[in-house]
UniProtKB/TrEMBL annotation, chain A:
Cross-referenced SUPFAM superfamilies: CO dehydrogenase molybdoprotein N-domain-like (SSF54665), Molybdenum cofactor-binding domain (SSF56003)
UniProt keyword Mitochondrion present: no
All residue ranges annotated as the Aldehyde oxidase/xanthine dehydrogenase a/b hammerhead domain in the record: 20-123
Source organism, top-level taxon: Bacteria
Coiled-coil blocks: none
Organism: Neobacillus niacini
The keyword Oxidoreductase belongs to this UniProt entry's keyword annotation: yes
UniProt keyword list: Molybdenum, Oxidoreductase
Protein name: CO/xanthine dehydrogenase Mo-binding subunit
InterPro entries noted in UniProt: Ald_Oxase/Xan_DH_a/b, Ald_Oxase/Xan_DH_a/b_sf, Ald_Oxase/xanthine_DH-like, AldOxase/xan_DH_MoCoBD1, AldOxase/xan_DH_MoCoBD2, AldOxase/xan_DH_Mopterin-bd_sf
GO molecular function list: iron ion binding; oxidoreductase activity
One Pfam family hit: MoCoBD_1
From TrEMBL, chain B:
Originating organism: Neobacillus niacini
Gene3D superfamilies, per the entry: 3.10.20.30, [2Fe-2S]-binding domain
EC class of the enzyme, as a word: oxidoreductase
Record keywords, A-Z: 2Fe-2S, Iron, Iron-sulfur, Metal-binding, Oxidoreductase
Domain 2Fe-2S ferredoxin-type: 1-76
SUPFAM superfamilies: 2Fe-2S ferredoxin-like, CO dehydrogenase ISP C-domain like
Coiled coil: none
Name assigned to this protein: Carbon-monoxide dehydrogenase small subunit
Listed EC numbers: 1.2.7.4
Record keyword Iron present: yes
A Pfam family annotated for this UniProt entry: Fer2_2
InterPro entries per record: 2Fe-2S-bd, 2Fe-2S-bd_dom_sf, 2Fe-2S_ferredoxin-like_sf, 2Fe-2S_ferredoxin-type, 2Fe2S_fd_BS, Beta-grasp_dom_sf, Diverse_Oxidoreductases
Recorded GO MF terms: 2 iron, 2 sulfur cluster binding; anaerobic carbon-monoxide dehydrogenase activity; metal ion binding
Automatic annotation (TrEMBL), chain C:
PANTHER family listed in its UniProt record: XANTHINE DEHYDROGENASE SUBUNIT C-RELATED
Listed SUPFAM superfamilies: CO dehydrogenase flavoprotein C-terminal domain-like, FAD-binding/transporter-associated domain-like
Organism encoding this protein: Neobacillus niacini
UniProt keywords, alphabetically: FAD, Flavoprotein, Oxidoreductase
Protein's name in the database: CO/xanthine dehydrogenase FAD-binding subunit
SMART domains in the cross-refs: CO_deh_flav_C
PROSITE patterns: FAD_PCMH
Domain FAD-binding PCMH-type span(s) in chain numbering: 1-175
InterPro entries xref list: CO_DH_flav_C (IPR005107), CO_DH_flav_C_dom_sf (IPR036683), Diverse_Substr_Oxidored (IPR051312), FAD-bd_PCMH (IPR016166), FAD-bd_PCMH-like_sf (IPR036318), FAD-bd_PCMH_sub2 (IPR016169), Mopterin_DH_FAD-bd (IPR002346)
Length: 720, 158, 290
């Protein structure tokens, strides 16, 4: 297949193996001399380990713990605060303490039950609210940033304001529920440890292994297995499992397989940070915004992990898509003795967008203006400064995208129809809501230049077959297909003849992690350039290799200390309209219609893009009203998929979507990031729709039936 | 010794009667197309046919299916029906991470063999026990709809 | 070192009963609940301590028969079989359709739903308002027990170790004239465990209420039903007055005592249960009137 238009869909590279089920995920793999590992975990939220008593281990069964770690006992991420095996303090329920390895899982589970441990329990912090109260205590604030206009000048503006509106907004956990539970295999070889498994970031893992095993670059190798969904859940968490199996494999000189049960996966793996967002907005007498102060609190859980970076993105998005005349923001990551929170599609932005869209929506009600009209008054335009004194330098198509959806959804007419319907129907109420959002593509600030330094390689064999040698994972999002397409088109080769094997760090350079909607835009661009280079040097019948390194786009330099400059090289944009019907007897919300417009520069594959839209939006919508996870005294309450409640096929409706073209100079064929963007608008739009149906305001997501019934009950109390 | 028919082959297993059908087909017969996503009948990744009915193999104690006919994704892979589903899933873009897909294909085949021309709602109900976290289902619904049309005649009830 | 697990799977009910008379066994019908309750972690069979006896294949337990206006449903009919059976009343089919998803419905049985006696058992509210009777059989003979006596608490039933639930009898269910409503409130549209279940039954002669029944699920250890409250409405005319509705709702308000758990809150469960009751009383009696 030769590619005329890059956006035209092609069959996915990995379709055959997946549709037949014959592609081996890590739990399908068996290697010689393989044993299983099971983890003994902390039963308490915070305390000191006094002693551990192991049962008599039968022959062939061994315990592996901190004493077997050759290097320092931490999982290398950013800070050194996450032990591989906790051996002194435990900081959350479920924290790994040791691993039992052996052939038979039945015996391992029995032995696990017989491990005895003496602990000295200490007073734990269980909730974000408790942590906020104690945020000045040592160790509670794990990261903090502040930026924007000075509080003095904001205060002066507030003096002249007609009114000051304060709102407090809460967002809950979100669990990834990738269909394939986490799994990692440490393969023991005389001269190297190979770690293979379900993952997004090969070099994060490799670097963590080099530190943990205190070994050389050639002593460890990381290979990605087919990965059954990631959504951020397999960004940093697998590094810990990789350390477990590698340390164990080295200790017992056998290959060690660690695969989680669903309930174990739900309870101990990272989740989206619960957040509290506080808004303080000064309004003039017409209800126009004069200034805004935002405070963001993220529940980091027991380790900082990637939370500081998540907070950065949350803060960078704290003003949404709006130009607020005078803006100030401050944010904190706070420690609680709960399961550590981490990366999840959107990475802090979904919390911020839910909050700001809610707040602006509520301000519009006060001003008695349709929320969409009110939002459009403040919409940023090309050339406007960002809240960090960067610049929106590329064209912004939001107005066109909004107009298009106003027509497609028949917004005005529908509002009137719903009003009539709601007057006539006692039980069911209909509403329509909107959300406007953006997503900064790639790493924040100078991350690509200073930390990632991506390198890509193209290899051409003697028989002229070209392979992509990059460290990025296809976890279902389709980069096998899209990146291969870019290379094929550039080289004028049939798409089928370009290969993209599962990455292996022995073969591929570090082209960066598969995160932050960076892969298509950043890695894709490097591949495009590499392909151009290869084409120029092409020698038929000769083995050739080309590499290409990241080049930074000239921007306003990012300064993390002052939080100023261009936080992102480019932005993708979106508009969602959602219609719901609420059952006022049960509080159940039914999605009726969903409309979505996006602008991602240029679509590399229409079908892959649609997959991102439908899947991302389903997650985003569910984040707003369906998926509910809670923690009680440090324990996750929902241990099964059903109790947590991600959408089934009967909860989702057809999504009418459109993608607008707006090529970006530094993306391949103009492409920008798309994967995270699609999730962000779901929750705020669904909230606005529920509010419209019930003519009330909410200060949290998810807006579960429980929340709705309570609010209706309160409303009845007020009226009656 | 429990005897049953697996993908058209008579087989015997000395697994304990409480052993999950899922483990027997994966471990003893190394058929990896049947996946484990939850082990509690909540995700459908382990869907198989038992006596022509869609079932979750993680909930089936092997002792209860003595004499039964069990078909896994491997057992339908060569069929014309599978070819249609394969094509339709590819064309509709129904496959992302792929982990739910063998189970989803089994559910699709089960639905179409009972109801060759399902409505959208019937399709959604037919796959409602098969969780997918990547696609938001719509492209899978489209794939099944496409397979119904393409395979018109093939799915007719016997 | 592995213990041998004993399991029986007889061709006939008679042999099954005779084995049950000899030893206390764990009865497994569809297994969709048992396999989850006794689940081990990944890769290991569930742990069931007693010898197991499989019954879901027994043809004697898979019949649906009409007897006058009564319906006799074999305990091991799967949900899917019942959905296809023309004799099964629509409200029961509606309740069954809310259970999990097709693969589970192909395996789970009505008898299993009763004997597991989960507070959230999907069919139970409806079976309670149908005044379902259960036929229990042992080598010593048959006995019939009303469902509300059979189910005694959370996962506790009044079954002798040598007995099998063979039939569910729905008395007079095929009679015309009753209006039956079922509502399940779950966290999503499929694969959900009930947070609240409600069944309402009303039969009128002219405008006079001859019979009225209500049952609530997932708001207590077993289904909540009260003959005493129901009686208050007998002989009244429809539409039921606001005052009578308020009285009935207030009476249930006193006896519905749900709990907070990982799926919902006590206050939500109670409010919604009463909302559904109020709605049923307001609307069902109106519809009949018209």
């Amino acid at each position: 297949m030769n590619l005329k238009n890059i956006s035209t869909s092609v069959p996915k590279k990995d379709h055959k193996g997946k549709v037949s089920g014959q592609l081996a995920y890590i739990s399908d793999v068996k290697v010689e001399n393989m044993v299983y590992g099971v983890l003994y975990r902390s039963p308490i939220a915070y305390g000191k380990i006094k002693s551990i008593q192991l049962p008599d281990l039968p022959e062939g069964y061994e315990a592996v713990g901190a004493e077997h770690i050759t290097g320092p006992n931490y999982v290398k991420i950013i800070k050194e605060d996450q032990p591989i095996f906790a051996n002194e303090w435990v900081n959350y329920i479920g924290e790994p303490i040791l691993m039992l390895v052996g052939k038979d899982l039945d015996i391992l589970y029995r032995l696990l039950d017989e491990v005895k441990m003496e602990l000295e329990e200490h007073q734990a912090i269980f909730t974000l609210d408790e942590a906020i109260k104690q945020k000045s205590s040592p160790g509670v604030t794990m990261a903090s940033y502040e930026f924007g206009e000075s509080l003095e000048s904001i205060s002066a503006i507030e003096q002249g304001a007609c009114q000051i509106i304060e709102e407090e907004y809460n967002t809950g956990y979100q669990e990834h529920v990738y269909l394939e539970p986490q799994g990692m295999l440490g393969i023991y070889k005389e001269d190297e440890i190979v770690v293979q498994g379900s993952m997004q970031c090969l070099y994060y893992i490799k670097n963590a292994l080099i530190t943990a095993l205190a070994c050389g670059d050639d002593d460890v190798r990381v290979v990605q297995s087919p990965t059954g969904g990631g959504f951020g859940g397999k960004e940093e968490f697998p590094s810990m499992m990789a350390c477990h199996v590698a340390v164990a494999a080295k200790a017992v000189k056998k290959s060690v397989m660690l695969v989680f049960d669903r309930s174990e996966d739900m309870v101990v793996t990272t989740k989206r940070h619960p957040a509290k967002l506080k808004y303080r907005t000064a309004l003039d007498k017409e209800g126009n915004i004069m200034s805004m102060c935002v405070e963001v609190f993220l529940d980091g859980g027991a380790n900082v992990g990637l939370s500081s970076v998540v907070l950065q993105r949350a803060l960078l998005n704290s003003a949404g898509v709006y130009k607020i005349p005078h803006f100030h923001a401050k944010g904190y990551v706070l420690k609680t003795n709960t399961v550590p929170n981490g990366a999840f599609r959107g990475f802090g932005a979904p919390q911020s967008f839910a909050g700001i869209e809610s707040h602006i929506g509520h301000l519009s009600k006060r001003a008695n203006i349709d929320p969409l009209d009110y939002k459009r008054k403040y919409l940023v335009q090309q050339g406007d400064p960002t809240i960090t004194k960067g610049n929106f330098r590329d064209p912004i198509l939001m107005e066109d995208m909004i107009e298009d959806l106003l027509n497609a959804s028949n917004y005005k007419k529908k509002k009137a129809e719903f009003q009539t319907f709601n007057q006539q129907n006692q039980r069911y109420k209909k509403g329509i809501g909107t959300s406007l959002f953006l997503h900064g593509c790639g790493f924040t600030g100078s991350g690509e230049r200073d930390h990632i330094k991506a390198k890509v390689k193209l290899y051409k064999s003697k028989d002229n077959q070209v392979s992509l040698k990059i460290s990025n994972s296809d976890m279902g999002q389709g980069i096998f297909t899209t990146l291969s397409k870019i290379v094929a088109k550039e080289l004028d080769l049939p798409y089928e003849e370009v290969l993209y094997p599962y990455p292996d760090t022995k073969e591929v350079p570090d082209s960066g992690p598969t995160v932050a909607s960076r892969t298509t835009m950043i890695v894709g661009k490097l591949l495009e350039r590499a392909a151009k280079k290869l084409k120029a040097q092409w020698l038929t019948g000769v083995e050739q290799e080309v590499t290409e390194d990241y080049v930074h786009r000239e921007m306003i330099p990012w300064d993390e200390k002052t939080f100023t400059g261009d936080a992102y090289p480019a932005y993708s944009w979106g508009v969602n309209f959602v219609e719901v019907e609420v059952d006022t007897l049960t509080g159940n919300v039914k999605l009726e219609k969903v409309y979505a417009n996006y602008e991602v520069g240029k679509v590399i594959d229409d079908r892959v893009m649609k997959g991102q839209i439908d899947g991302g939006l389903a997650q985003g919508l569910a984040y707003g009203y369906l998926e509910k996870m809670t923690s009680k005294e440090g324990r996750i309450q929902q241990k099964s998929i059903t109790d947590y409640g991600p959408p089934t096929s009967m909860d989702v409706v057809t999504i009418q979507s459109k993608v607008f073209d707006n090529p970006y100079a530094d993306g391949p064929y103009g492409a920008k990031g798309a994967g995270e963007l699609t999730l962000i608008g779901g929750a705020p739009a669904v909230q606005a729709a529920i509010e419209d149906a019930l003519q009330t305001s909410f200060q949290q997501i998810p807006i579960t039936p429980e929340v709705i019934i309570e609010s209706l009950w309160m409303k009845e109390g007020e009226e009656g | 010794m429990i005897k049953f028919n697996l993908n058209g082959r008579k087989i015997e297993t000395d697994a304990p009667p409480t052993a999950r059908l899922l483990d027997v087909i994966r471990e003893d017969f190394t058929l990896i197309g049947t996946k484990e996503g939850c082990g509690e009948g909540e995700c459908g990744a382990c869907s198989v046919f038992v006596n022509n009915l869609l079932q979750n193999s993680c909930l089936i104690p092997i002792g209860s299916i003595d004499g039964a006919e069990v078909v896994t994704i491997e057992g339908i892979m060569e069929s014309d029906q599978f070819k249609i589903l394969d094509e339709s899933y590819s064309e509709a873009g129904g496959v992302q991470c792929g982990y739910c897909i063998p189970g989803m294909v089994m559910a699709s085949a089960a639905l179409l063999s009972q109801n060759p021309h399902p409505s959208e709602d019937e399709i959604r109900e037919g796959i409602s026990g098969n969780l997918c976290r990547c696609t938001g289902y719509n492209m899978i619904v489209e794939a099944i709809n496409m397979a119904a049309k393409k395979g018109d005649g093939l799915w007719k009830k016997q | 070192m592995e213990e041998t697990i004993i399991a029986y799977r007889f061709d006939r009910l008679e042999e099954t009963l005779s084995q049950l008379n000899k030893a206390n066994c764990a009865i497994v019908a569809g297994g969709t609940d048992v396999m989850v309750m006794h689940k081990s972690r990944r890769g290991v069979p569930p742990k069931i301590t007693k010898p197991i006896i499989f019954i879901d294949h027994l043809l004697e337990l898979k019949q649906v028969n009409q007897n006058g206006n009564d319906l006799h449903i074999g305990a091991c009919c799967t949900y899917s079989e019942l959905l296809r059976d023309p004799l099964i009343p629509m409200p029961l089919k509606k309740a069954i359709k809310t259970i999990a998803a097709p693969a589970i419905r192909n395996r789970g049985t009505l008898g299993g739903n009763i004997c597991n006696a989960s507070p959230a058992g999907d069919t139970l509210p409806l079976l309670y308002v149908y005044n379902a009777k259960l036929l229990l059989r042992s080598v010593n003979g048959d006995r019939i027990v009303p469902i509300c006596e059979f189910i005694q608490g959370v996962r506790r039933v009044q079954r002798e170790p040598n007995e099998i639930l063979t039939e569910i009898i729905l008395p007079s269910v095929l009679e015309e004239g009753a209006h039956v409503v079922f509502e399940k409130v779950g966290n999503r549209n499929a694969d959900a465990i009930a947070k609240v279940g409600f069944a309402g039954y009303i039969r009128t002669k002219g405008a006079v209420i001859e019979d009225v029944r209500f049952a609530f699920g997932a708001v207590g250890p077993t289904m909540i039903r009260s003959n005493e409250i129901e009686k208050k409405l007998l002989g009244k005319t429809i539409p039921v007055t606001d005052m009578d509705i308020a009285k009935v709702v207030a009476a249930f308000d006193k006896i519905i005592k749900p709990i907070d758990d990982q799926r919902s809150t006590a206050i939500y469960r109670k409010t919604v249960a009463l909302n559904l009751l109020r709605y049923f009383l307001t609307n069902s009696t109106h519809i009949q009137h018209i």
